[in-house]
Specification:
Elements: E1 2-6, H1 11-21, E2 25-30, E3 41-44, E4 58-59, E5 61-64, H2 70-79, E6 82-83, E7 85-89, H3 117-132, E8 139-144, E9 147-149, H4 158-166, E10 171-174, E11 180-181, E12 183-185, H5 186-199, E13 205-207, E14 214-215, H6 216-225, E15 233-236, H7 258-263, H8 270-283, H9 293-300
Length: 305
Amino acid sequence: MKILVTGGTVFASRFTAEYFARENEVYVLNRNSRPQSSGVTPIIADRHNLGDTLKKYAFDAVIDVTAYNETDVRDLLSALGNFKNYVLVSSSAVYPETLPQPFREDMQTGANSIWGDYGTNKIAAEKYLTEHVPNERANAYIIRPPYLYGKMNNLYREAFAFECAERDLPFYLPKNGEMPLQFFDIEDMCRFIAILLEKQPEHRVFNVGNPETITVREWARLCYGVFGKIPEFVNVSADIEQREYFPFYDYGYMLDVAEMSALMPDVKPLERGLAQSYEWFASNRREVRRKNYFEYISDNFARSK
């Protein structure tokens, strides 16, 4: 297939580009501000100022990993020539936290106080796409992942826990450590997109993710387990803002992924995915966008060394 991937230089878009480039002709659309993915053909342009840049191409699929709002989708759609499928990587942030869980695709989307504009902008992007595609020339699919992780993850999430383990530090857990989180390995996301492009299901909007949630305590144990270590836990009072020392918001949620599982019943075990994530991190530490968690812990928690 001839595939266009937006971005192609950082985490999800980079992994997606390189994943599909293994067996397809992949083009990436970006401004060339970072090193390019391997095995792809760059189209150097701003998605908001494309002119006729894309009109000469006919794509079997457009995988839009970097659309965050309606304008992002509108400008790309208006600039495309012929294409057969458009896959929008949206977010679980489109569901209001007031809905019963697990969230299902047929539930009403709406503002979420945790995610703010990020969630409402994703809703607007979805809405614009569904109003303009599908049509006689193309299909549109929307996927809504929870927390993505895995190889090329430049966000300071599992990387922070890995560094805690490397330093033999205790791990500071918010409250009782039982907040549930749901994850999805970036490779599984790409596998599912490939299934959508192959099978062309009638269902168009999919929650994606591991079928089970995991508590933050269990997640930290798995991260330390990559090194064969067992963490010492220190519980932190709810009075302290957890984003000062911990990489996730104070918000536990779960997606119903039954529709995804019907098409792709097997997902990568979190333990294996975290081990693969560390393999990448160990050789690419400078790629990670660090936050000042260690500084805050050192300054505010007496047990930190």
